[in-house]
Write a structure and sequence with these properties.
Order of helices and strands: EEHEEEHHEEHEHEEEEHEHEEEHE
Shape: globular
Protein name: Branched-chain-amino-acid aminotransferase
Distance between the termini: 19 Å
Keywords: Amino-acid biosynthesis, Aminotransferase, Branched-chain amino acid biosynthesis, Pyridoxal phosphate, Transferase
GO molecular function, one term: branched-chain-amino-acid transaminase activity
Bound molecules: 4'-deoxy-4'-aminopyridoxal-5'-phosphate
Enzyme class: transferase
Mean pLDDT: 96
Low-confidence stretches: none
Catalytic activity: L-isoleucine + 2-oxoglutarate = (S)-3-methyl-2-oxopentanoate + L-glutamate; L-leucine + 2-oxoglutarate = 4-methyl-2-oxopentanoate + L-glutamate; L-valine + 2-oxoglutarate = 3-methyl-2-oxobutanoate + L-glutamate
Largest sheet: 9 strands, mixed
Number of helices: 8
Amino acid sequence: MKKQEQPSLIWFNGNVEPWENATVHVWSELATRGANIFEGIRCYQQKDGSHALISLEQHLNRLFSALKILRIASPFTKEELKAGIIDLINALKLEGHIYVRPTVYVEKGRYGEGYGEVKNGAYIVAFPVERSPSIQEGIKCCVSSWRRMNDLSMSPLLKAGAAYQSFKLPMIDALNGGYDEAILLNDKGLVAETTGATIFMVRNGQVITPPISAGILESITRSNCINLLRSHFKIQVVERDIPRTELYWADEIFLTGTLAELTPVLSIDKIDIGNGAVGPITQKLQTTYLGICEGRKEDTFNWLTLL
Ligand code: PMP
């Protein structure tokens, strides 16, 4: 399959099927209220051409934890979804790095009332994903006037399709302002995260990142990078609140996420971070992180599921 083409196959409710077969009615909960929980997982091509999924178990655990919050019963077990992911990737025979998106959705039953009337389903999509040049070049961010949703309205812990509408206005503003990405503050005015990645700041040799209680997604790349910094590089990582203005004092800033991988931030609100170039800690963390993902460095943390 060529890059950016529609995949020929999809895993839909238990089987690998032709793409066109995966249909749900417009009058479903999925379509009308965006009732779904999804995961985004990277499957890295290894140096020998084979593929490996990163942090598969953690991604599926997060999917089921989110389903628990919204009281959505998955019609498939973790093991069945895992098998579905592997079956689909094998059937598609894709080249290069791959992005995989398992999704559990609600077809019928608004509040899960009358158990007989509830109907849920699941699908998995996989397609090739190119590495963004931002990984090398770095990006320009702004701090948005829009806020990250808080736990009392829509939990930031939920990777729910509907929740991602809240990132549309911050992204439109950021792009209109000539920036690449928006940093969102939480309801207390403290730094939360971007529209698809968590944020790390390096100051005086220490790495600082907002805690989960700042109202962020419990990011898997964030946790992998914290482990790498602490155990591999012996660098101190502190999880604490960050006020907006402290960002301007940082020596280095980088973002982490499944798609963002490890993206350097060169400026915020048009203020250079450090000397406005990719910093040394960002650089070495990125090299080691991608090295493990692509099988060029030893997988000491057991991140990879080899296919
Ligand atoms: N925050 C948000 C809002 C995201 O959508 C993502 C992407 N899943 C992340 C952070 C990064 O999370 P992860 O490292 O688990 O991909």
